């Protein structure tokens, strides 16, 4: 699995051009590899998942899992958030289906107000605590302090008024 993931991660690299650069002594193999790793490795911001609010997790899974063939990598209930979650890997990112487990949950209120659909975009950051402090100092509106969520990851939400209109979830890498 690791070999396959690494090959996918580096599939768009032009190895021939890199080899020509090294052969012409305009670059060296170490710099080329560092560039590749830096472009897609740890420390880089990347989309972790798209959170989609659904009326019914089973109906949502009927589409994503049964019709499109997305596998389910995690199913759990997050009691604090009053939500049932299903995670579906989608390349380097995931789709997170969110179903309210209680009528007063944030997801239930979201669906009541806006209908089912995209709830948030989640981005992994290398240092969540430092990112939160920087955002606070710049006046960003955060909806919570960092806390543990689905899958045990540490996260914080940034209000749409600070992000240009989309609820943004920041996750510790």
Summary tags:
alpha+beta; 2,3-Dihydroxybiphenyl 1,2-Dioxygenase, domain 1; 2 domains; eight-stranded mixed sheet; 29% strand; globular
Describe the structure.
The chain has 173 residues and is α+β, with helices and mostly antiparallel strands. The chain folds into two domains: 2-40, no CATH class; 46-172, 2,3-Dihydroxybiphenyl 1,2-Dioxygenase, domain 1 (Roll). Helix content is 36%, strand content 29%. It contains seven helices and eight strands. The protein has an eight-stranded mixed beta sheet. The longest helix has 12 residues, at 29-40. The mean pLDDT is 87.
In summary, what is this structure?
By secondary structure, the protein is α+β, with helices and mostly antiparallel strands. The protein has 7 helices and 8 strands; from the N terminus they run αααβαβββαβαββαβ.
Output the CATH class name of the largest domain: Alpha Beta
Runs in which pLDDT lies below 50 for 5 or more consecutive residues are none
Q: Count of DSSP helices? A: 7
- Percent helix, as a range, is 25-40%
Structural class comes to: alpha+beta
Strand residue percentage = 25-35%
How is the biggest beta sheet arranged?
A: 8 strands, mixed
Strand arrangement, major sheet:
2-3-4-1-5-8-7-6
Shape: globular
Beta strand count: 8
What is the count of structural domains? Answer: 2
Q: Please give the radius of gyration in angstroms.
A: 19 Å
CATH architecture of the largest domain: Roll
CATH T-level topology of the largest domain: 2,3-Dihydroxybiphenyl 1,2-Dioxygenase, domain 1
Distance between the termini: 20 Å
> Could you spell the SSE succession in H and E letters?
HHHEHEEEHEHEEHE
């Amino acid at each position: 699995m690791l070999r396959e993931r690494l090959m996918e991660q580096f599939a768009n690299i032009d190895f021939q051009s890199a080899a020509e650069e090294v052969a012409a002594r305009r670059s060296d193999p170490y710099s080329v590899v560092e560039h590749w790793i830096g472009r897609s490795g740890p420390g880089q911001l990347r989309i972790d998942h798209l959170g989609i609010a659904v009326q019914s997790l089973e109906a949502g899974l009927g589409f994503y899992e049964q019709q499109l063939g997305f596998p389910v990598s995690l199913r759990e209930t997050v009691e604090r958030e009053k939500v049932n979650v299903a995670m579906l890997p989608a390349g380097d990112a995931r789709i997170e289906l969110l179903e309210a487990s209680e009528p007063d949950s944030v997801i239930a209120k979201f669906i009541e107000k806006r209908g089912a659909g995209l709830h948030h975009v989640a981005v992994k950051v290398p240092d969540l605590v430092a990112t939160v402090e920087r955002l606070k100092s710049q006046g960003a509106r955060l909806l919570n302090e960092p806390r543990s969520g689905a899958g045990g990851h540490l996260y914080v939400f940034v209000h749409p008024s600070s992000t240009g209109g989309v609820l943004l979830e920041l996750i510790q890498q």
